[in-house]
Amino acid sequence: MITQVIPRPDGKVLVAGAFSSVNREARRGLAVLNVDGSTDLGFVPALDSTGQAVDNAGRVFITQAIPARNVNVISRLTAIGAPDATFASAELSFAESLFAQPDGKLLVGSSSTAPPPAVSGLLRFNLDASDCLFAVGSKNACFCGLIPRA
Fold this sequence. Notes:
globular
C-alpha cells in the first residue's frame, strides 16, 4: 500500500508505504517512479524509512528508526538510494514526518526525550542538518544531536 507520493523537480515521484515491491521490482517501502510510471531501477534504497521529503534539488531525506539505540535518524540519500556519507544526520528520540521547504529548511515532526533537554512538536533544520533553528510545541530549548559521518 502506497501511503505517500512526493513529486520531484525532475518529474519523477518518490513513493513510500507498506510494500515490498513496485512494478515487480523489489523495493522495501520506498521507490522512485519515472514519468511513465515505471520503477527507477537506479534508485534502490538500502534503508527502511518512516518519513520522507524531497528538496528543490531532488535530494531525498528520510527518517530511519534505529531500534537498538531507541532513536530515529534523519538521513539524506544519494541518487541511487544509499545513505549520503557527506550528510551529518540529526538524531532524535522520535521523528516521523518530514517536509523540505522551498527556502532550504527541513521541517520535522518529532519528539526527543534524551539527552535533555526534551523537545517535541515541530523542529526546523537547515537541509545540511547543521543547525536546529527552532522547536515549536516544546518548553525547552532546541536539541539537535548531530552525528558526523566519516
